[in-house]
Amino acid sequence: MQLRRVCYTDGMDTTFIEELRAIVGDDGLRVTDAQKHVYAFDAYTLEKSLPGVVALPRSAEEVAAVARLCHRRGVSMVPRGAGTGLAGGTLTHDNQVMVCLSRMNRILDIDLPNERMRAQAGAININLTKAVAPDGYLYAPDPSSQGACTLGGNIANNSGGPHTLKYGVTVNHILAVQVVLPDGEIVELSQDDHGYDLVGMIVGSEGTLGIVTEATVRVVRAPEAIRTLLAVCHSVDDATNLVSAIIGAGIVPAALEMMDQTILEAVERTYHFGFPTEAGAVLIIEVDGPEVGIDRQTERIEAICRDGGALRVSVAADAEERAKLWMARKKSIGTIGRLAPSCMTQDGVAPRTKLPAILREVGEIAAKYDLRIANVFHAGDGNLHPCVLFDERDPEEVKRVLAAGGDILRACVREGGTLTGEHGIGIEKQEFLGLIFSPDDLDTMAAIRSVFNPDGLLNPGKLFPAGGTCCPQLPRTDNEALLVMTHTHATAV
Ligand SMILES: Cc1cc2nc3c(=O)[nH]c(=O)nc-3n(C[C@H](O)[C@H](O)[C@H](O)COP(=O)(O)OP(=O)(O)OC[C@H]3O[C@@H](n4cnc5c(N)ncnc54)[C@H](O)[C@@H]3O)c2cc1C
C-alpha cells in the first residue's frame, strides 16, 4: 500500500490531531508545549525533544485505532511506558506521535493454580507483586525503578533487577503477549504456540516490532526464608573479588549487588542509614529458599567474606532491616542528585571474574576525563552501572561524559562482555553496535524488523539507526565469537 505522508509546517496537521482526538478523547491527548514537556525526555537525560502529540489510549482497541490512523497517514509512533528508560528509547520528534500506555495499568486476571497473571502493559512493575503477595507469590523481575516502570517498558527492554541473578530477566517470565502491529492489527502471541519463539522476539525489541498492550506473566512462590547480608569491604577490588569467590563456591545468591564509596556517600547524605562511608565498597548479598539449610548457607557466605578480607559482615536482623538495605540500593541512583546536577548511567557487561580489572579501568577513565564516577550495580551478573556525574549545562563536560561512556563500553567488550545488560541500545549505544555485530548480523535483524514493521513507522531511529544497518564498523575483538545478542542479558562466566 502506498503511504500518504502528512506535510508538517507548524507542528502536526490539525485534521490528523482531530482524528486522534476522536479515538482517545479530549483527556487522552496532550497537544500544548507545556503538556508535552513532561514527555520530552526519559531517564537518558542527555537529549530532549518535544513529541508532535501524545496519545494516551485506554484499551488495545484504541491503540490499534491510533496505529491504523498513523499507518494510513504515514506518521511514525513511539511507544512509552513510564519514561524511566536509560537509553533514550522514548525520544520522540515533533512529527511523531507518542503512544503512552500509562493509563492502561490494570491487572486483568490472576490464575494462581497455573502460576500466572495477566496485566495491561502500563501496569507498574511493583503492582504485579503487590497483587499476588497476600497469597504468597511474587513477580520476580524487579528493576530498581520498579515503583515507576511499566510491564510494557520491561518487556521492550528485557529488564532485569537485583534478583535476576537467580530468577532471570523479563524474557524468562513472559508467557504471552498481546501486541498491536504498526498497521493496527492486534495479535496474540504465546509461548504455548508451536513454532518460532515470537514472544521471545518481542521481548527486548525496544518498541520497534509492535506496541505491547497486554501480557501474561509467570508468578513464582515467594521463598520460605530469606537472609540478607551486608559485607563491608576495604576496596572495590576486595568486593569484586568476593563476588567470584561466593559464586565460585557453588552458591547462587538470589541477589549480589555492589555499591562503592561515592554512591554510599550520596545515599548517606540523603537517608542517613548509618552505612560506613569510609568503606571502599559494600556488597548486599541475599540468599533465599527453604528454611532448612539457609542458615548454613549464610554462614558459608559470611566465612567466604571474612576469608576474603571483608572488614565486617552482618545479617539483617529482621524484615525492617532488610527493607532498609534494599531501599538504600534501589533508591541509590536517585540520591546522586546530592553529588551532581546530572548523571549518565552506563550499562556494560563484563565477565564476573574480570570485574576487578574493569572497575580499575573505570577509575582510570574517570581520571582521564576528569570526571567523578559512582558505581552501583548487579555485581553477580557482571552488569556494571558506572554513574558518570556531571553538569549537563556544561557542553564541554558533556563531551567528556560521552567519551568516557564510549571508553567504558569498549573496555567491557574487550574483556569479553557486551554493550547492555538491561537498559537496551535506544539511541545511546547505536554507534557501538559494530563492536559486537557484523554487517550480516545487523542485516538479519533489520530483515526481522521489516517483517513486523515494514514501513519503519514504529520507533524509527531506535535500536538501529533509522535507515537500517548503517552503523560504522568499529574494530572487532577476539572475543566476538563469545558474544550473543545484547538482549539476552549476557550471563557472566
Ligand atoms: C533509577 C533507575 C533505576 C533503574 N534500574 C533498573 C534495573 O535495575 N534494571 C533494569 O533493567 N532497568 C532499570 N532501569 C531502567 C528502566 O527503568 C527500565 O528499562 C524499564 O523497563 C523501563 O520501563 P518504562 O515503563 O519506564 O519504559 P519507557 O522508558 O517508557 O520505555 C522504554 C523502551 O520501551 C519501549 N516501550 C515502552 N512501553 C512499551 C510498550 N507497551 N510496547 C512496546 N514498547 C514499549 C519504549 O519505546 C522505549 O524504547 C532503571 C532506571 C532508573 C531511572
Written overview of the protein:
The strands form four sheets. This protein has a seven-stranded antiparallel beta sheet, with helices on both faces. A five-stranded antiparallel beta sheet has the order 5-6-10-8-9. It is built from 15 helices and 18 strands. The chain is of the alpha+beta class. The longest helix is centred in the last third of the chain and has 20 residues, at about 395-415. The model is unreliable at about 1-10 and about 465-493 (pLDDT under 50). The protein has four domains: about 15-100, Uridine Diphospho-n-acetylenolpyruvylglucosamine Reductase, domain 2; about 105-220, Uridine Diphospho-n-acetylenolpyruvylglucosamine Reductase, domain 3, CATH 3.30.465.10; about 225-335, Alpha-Beta Plaits (2-Layer Sandwich); about 340-490, 2-Layer Sandwich (Alpha-Beta Plaits), CATH 3.30.70.2740. The termini are far apart. The protein has helices spanning about 15-25, 35, 60-75, 125-130, 150-155, 165, 200, 235-250, 260-270, 295-305, 320-330, 330-335, 355-370, 395-415, 440-450, and strands spanning about 30, 55, 75-80, 95-100, 105-110, 115-120, 135-140, 175-180, 185-190, 210-220, 220, 225-235, 255-260, 280-290, 310-315, 340-345, 370-375, 385-390. Helix content is about 30%, strand content about 20%. The protein is globular. Bound molecules: flavin-adenine dinucleotide (FAD).
